[in-house]
């Protein structure tokens, strides 16, 4: 269309056309600027800094006010990392933590909660969803304190008080079953995100479609399987992708609950290691350069996963044509 | 399949969807639920479909009471205004969906979908998705999906409202033809009185959750039992004037300060015996612009409809809609005299809005 306008209107001098094109580009960049600046300031620049730090030996032990004195060490930090006897354990801890939390809580339970709460009375559904949001809106420190009180040893812990009341043996849960609680504590927070996305997706399915399925002879379960699930495919894939990445980088709750313990790195995950190495070393020796190497690897894993997800799930296609609305 | 509705009520909290509705629909009959938005017609339809449970009353399909029967066990087909095709399924999968749920074998599914698709004229489109179809094609798919399981009752929820005017006309004819052909009891919800008049054997006129009338189109048109029915059925709508009907020497006159029209005895006697003023109703086609007309007025506006002109004539403080031949080229502001065909005139009680002629 614009092509036609250009050729048919030959009286317009080229110079003006050129400046118009420039203007239209300026407009486009102008609109992209706010998001672009955010990405640059809060992602690209930090990544560049961390990338740089990861090839230096900057640490609290050799830190002086003269930053120019920090030493370039090439890939030494990465070499150390690969030879670290615990890196492997931490890596598989991370995969275990992300996979289990994601599949049980952030996706499955979120889906179950949103399906259940959209199939009951609207107000009741709202109340249940509000309850599920509580873990997310509670400050992590308070939230973890609650869990610590619940799981504490007898006679203090609430769960152990029940155990005692019913004549059961008591446990020091965070020492005996740390992974269960790391996953549950994070999972309870994780449910609300998917729940909100899935609920709004389910509620935006046209009522007629849902009624049509019942009239066509489906039970409510068959309707979920044949109509609702396919129609919320895009939000489902979005939640899987987004929550994978956010679980990979989350460590605050684990830090507060077990701080990677008990023992040596039993529940330590990659992002927590980066934090420990760089900012909270056991011996008061913050290895900024070495910790940055952990962070850089995490960013790389995240970017690679994001690209794989986008390719496999064909996000571009899903965004181009929102299936639910395209009736 | 006979459909019997007795004293049906459906309330949503304090909001009344439909109240105390009684309708007996014969086997193979085509019934239209006609009424303005919010009159309860769609609520009634969804209650028949089993989407809503009745608050009160009894619904029978044949002899079976279906009040609490799940939609899937009612063997109904339904066509929606929005078509309600599953966007993630192809046309074939859409039509086959009811069969798949009934666990019909793959081969049978294939045969029956093909057969229905051919009847509906969409045999070429089976591999497409709904998003790739025009509105008319989508509506045919929706109809095919409703028909494929050979339902006992067909429910239509304003199926033609989203189509353009020409297509609506075509589909109207096709649905009527198909319904007569298959003999499936059909209930058709619409707010378009032309659709109801042209397609239905009987029309249930509803307003405010109540049944106003349930009769054949002709009966509703010629002998409306309430002012609502008289005003709702017919296009352009009936003219209403507040008059008093007087009897003098065995002759009857409908009078206002600017009108005095003689009414024949059969129509004039009942309103004359009514205390106080009454509402007179007269259809646009029963008023003519004629040189020998008894009432004179001024043309307020002329709306050309192509075949004829819709003219708004002001007589005193009254306003009458009437239809006139386009050849006469009437203009706004022109003074004309009107002749009223008083044999078709209706009278209503202004308080109860009930007809004074037909009970």
Furnish the topology, listing elements before pairings.
The complex is a heterodimer of chains A (327) and B (359).
Chain A: H1 2-8, H2 14-53, H3 76-83, H4 87-118, H5 122-137, H6 140-151, H7 158-165, H8 173-176, H9 178-203, H10 207-215, H11 220-231, H12 233-249, H13 252-257, H14 270-279, H15 288-312, H16 315-320
Chain B: E1 3-12, E2 15-25, E3 30-34, H1 41-49, E4 56-61, E5 64-65, E6 76-79, H2 91-101, H3 106-120, H4 135-147, E7 153-157, H5 165-182, E8 185-190, H6 193-199, E9 202-207, E10 210-215, H7 217-222, H8 227-232, E11 239-248, E12 251-255, E13 260-263, H9 265-272, E14 278-282, E15 287-289, E16 295-304, E17 308-315, E18 318-325, E19 335-340, E20 346-348
Parallel strand pairs in B: 3-8, 3-9, 6-7, 7-8
Antiparallel strand pairs in B: 1-2, 1-4, 4-5, 9-10, 11-12, 11-14, 12-13, 14-20, 15-19, 16-17, 16-19, 17-18
Helix pairs in contact in B: 2-3, 2-4, 3-4
Describe the protein's architecture and organization.
Helix content of chain A is 73%, strand content 0%. Chain A has a single domain, classed as MetI-like fold (Orthogonal Bundle). The N terminus and C terminus of chain A are likely disordered. With 327 residues, chain A is mainly alpha-helical. Chain B has 2 domains: 230 residues, 3-Layer(aba) Sandwich (Rossmann fold); 110 residues, Nucleic acid-binding proteins (OB fold (Dihydrolipoamide Acetyltransferase, E2P)), CATH 2.40.50. Chain B is built from 9 helices and 20 strands. Chain B is elongated. The interface between A and B is medium-sized, with 23 and 28 residues.
């Amino acid at each position: 269309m614009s092509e036609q306008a250009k050729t048919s209107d030959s009286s317009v001098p080229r110079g003006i056309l050129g400046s118009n094109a420039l203007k239209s580009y300026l407009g486009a960049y102008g609109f992209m600027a706010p998001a672009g600046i955010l990405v640059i300031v809060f992602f690209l620049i930090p990544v560049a800094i961390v990338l740089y730090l990861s090839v230096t030996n900057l640490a609290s032990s050799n830190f002086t006010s003269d930053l120019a004195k920090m030493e370039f060490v090439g890939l030494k930090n990465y070499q150390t990392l690969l030879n670290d006897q615990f890196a492997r354990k931490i890596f598989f801890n991370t995969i275990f933590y992300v996979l289990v939390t994601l599949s049980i809580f952030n996706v499955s339970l979120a889906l179950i909660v949103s399906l259940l709460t959209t199939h009951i009375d609207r107000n009741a559904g709202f109340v249940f969803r509000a309850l599920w949001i509580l873990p997310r809106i509670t400050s992590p420190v308070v939230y973890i304190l609650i869990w610590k009180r619940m799981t504490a040893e007898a006679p203090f812990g609430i769960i152990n008080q029940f155990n005692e009341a019913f004549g059961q043996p008591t446990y020091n849960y965070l020492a005996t079953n740390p992974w269960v609680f790391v996953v549950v504590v994070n999972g309870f927070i994780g449910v609300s995100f998917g729940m909100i996305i899935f609920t709004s997706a389910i509620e935006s399915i046209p009522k007629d479609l849902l009624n049509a399925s019942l009239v066509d002879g489906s039970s409510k379960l068959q309707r979920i399987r044949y109509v609702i699930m396919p129609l919320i495919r895009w939000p489902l894939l979005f939640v899987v992708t987004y929550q994978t990445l956010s679980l990979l980088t989350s460590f605050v709750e684990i830090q507060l609950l077990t701080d990677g313990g008990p023992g040596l790195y039993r529940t330590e995950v990659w992002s927590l290691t980066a934090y420990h190495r760089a900012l909270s070393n056991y011996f008061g020796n913050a290895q900024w350069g070495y910790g940055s190497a952990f962070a850089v690897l995490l960013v790389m894993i995240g970017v690679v996963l994001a690209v794989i997800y986008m390719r496999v799930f064909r996000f571009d296609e899903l965004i181009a044509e929102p299936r639910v609305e395209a009736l | 399949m006979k459909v019997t509705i007795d004293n049906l009520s459906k309330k949503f909290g304090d909001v009344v969807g439909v109240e105390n509705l009684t309708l007996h629909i014969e086997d193979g009959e085509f019934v239209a639920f006609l009424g303005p938005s919010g009159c309860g017609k769609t609520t009634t339809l969804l209650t028949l479909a089993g989407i809503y449970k009745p608050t009160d009353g009894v619904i029978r399909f044949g002899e079976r009471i279906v009040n609490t029967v799940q939609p899937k066990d009612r063997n109904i087909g339904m066509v929606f205004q929005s078509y309600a095709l599953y966007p993630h399924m192809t046309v074939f999968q859409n039509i086959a969906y009811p069969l798949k749920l009934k666990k019909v074998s793959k081969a049978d599914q294939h045969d029956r979908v093909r057969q229905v698709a051919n009847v509906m004229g969409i045999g070429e489109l089976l591999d497409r998705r709904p998003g790739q179809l025009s509105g008319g094609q989508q509506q045919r798919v929706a109809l095919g999906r409703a028909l494929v399981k050979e339902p006992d009752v067909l429910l239509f929820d304003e199926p033609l409202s989203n189509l353009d005017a020409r297509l609506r006309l075509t589909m109207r004819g096709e649905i009527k033809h198909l319904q007569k052909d298959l003999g499936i009891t059909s209930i058709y919800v619409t707010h378009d009185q032309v659709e109801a008049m042209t397609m239905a054997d009987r029309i249930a006129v509803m307003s405010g959750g109540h049944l106003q009338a349930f009769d054949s189109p002709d009966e509703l048109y010629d002998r409306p039992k309430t002012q609502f029915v008289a005003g709702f059925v017919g296009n352009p709508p009936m003219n209403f004037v507040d008059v008093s009907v007087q009897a003098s020497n065995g002759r009857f006159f409908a009078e206002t300060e600017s009108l005095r029209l003689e009414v024949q005895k059969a129509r004039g006697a009942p309103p004359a015996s009514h205390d106080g003023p009454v509402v007179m109703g007269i259809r646009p086609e029963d008023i003519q612009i004629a040189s020998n007309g008894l009432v004179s007025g001024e043309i307020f506006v002329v709306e050309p409809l192509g075949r004829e002109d819709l003219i708004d004539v002001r007589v005193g403080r009254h306003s009458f809609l009437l239809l006139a031949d386009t050849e006469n080229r009437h203009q706004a502001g022109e003074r004309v005299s009107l002749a009223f065909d008083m044999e078709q005139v209706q009278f209503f009680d202004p308080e109860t809005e009930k007809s004074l002629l037909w009970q």
